[in-house]
Every structure is written in C-alpha cells, then in structure tokens.
C-alpha cells in the first residue's frame, strides 16, 4: 500500500502569489475551507474550524514545520481526523509539503502527504483514500483561487 499521496498542479500565477495563498492564514482558509484562529508560525499549532459543508463540526489542526519563503510550506497533521468522538492525538501525524517551482507560465505546485505507513492499520486505507480525493480537490481549489 502507498505511503504517500502526490499531486502536481500548474498554476498561471507567479510564485509570490501562490506563496501568499498558501501561507497567509486568511487566504489559505478561503481556498482550503477552514477558518483559522491566527497566522502560521513554524513550530506552532495552527487551528480553526472547517467551513466545508458537512464538516463544520470538525476542528482543523496542523503543526507548522517549515516556511521556506517561496519554496516550501509544510505541516504535520492527523489525516482524515473527522470523528469528534475519536482522540487522534496518540497517532503519528503525516507530513504535508507544498513545494513551489517557478515555470515560464507561472508556478508548479507539488503537494505531497507522506507517512501513511505509520497510521494504525484500521485507519490507513480510509485516510489514504479520503486524502487522495481531498488533495485532488484542493489542487483545483488553489488553482481557481490564484488564477482569478
């Protein structure tokens, strides 16, 4: 079974624009469908409420790992942690990386989520399936956001 999800999207927007969409917590929330409590800070927890219909009861949490300006934004989180009755805090998190590369037309954004092998066996297949579809949608969301 796969340990990672990888999505690549070509964006007709400069790297600076894509970087802002990823790392400004207000802009991130617009395309990602989450209302964050505050800015992203490396080493700190970012949290907020998901605003996607049907998931408004879910708290979104991620620990920012890196903010390497215009190149890499990364965080760890608990994938597909949507059941409020479950304590996911004892599970190892996965690593989400957004890598930006300038292209003649704008920016190539590579989204990688890795570390699924460390998840409990009963959670791994569903987390992989749901996040694979989720990242496909988020790639479309950020494309629409930065290209408007």
Automatic annotation (TrEMBL):
Record domain Activator of Hsp90 ATPase homologue 1/2-like C-terminal: where: 12-147
GO molecular function: methyltransferase activity
Keywords assigned by UniProt, alphabetized: Methyltransferase, Transferase
Keyword check for Methyltransferase: yes
GO biological process, one term: methylation
Cross-referenced SUPFAM superfamilies: Bet v1-like (SSF55961)
Similarity remark: Belongs to the AHA1 family.
Protein name: Vanillate O-demethylase oxidoreductase VanB
Native source organism of the sequence: Phenylobacterium hankyongense
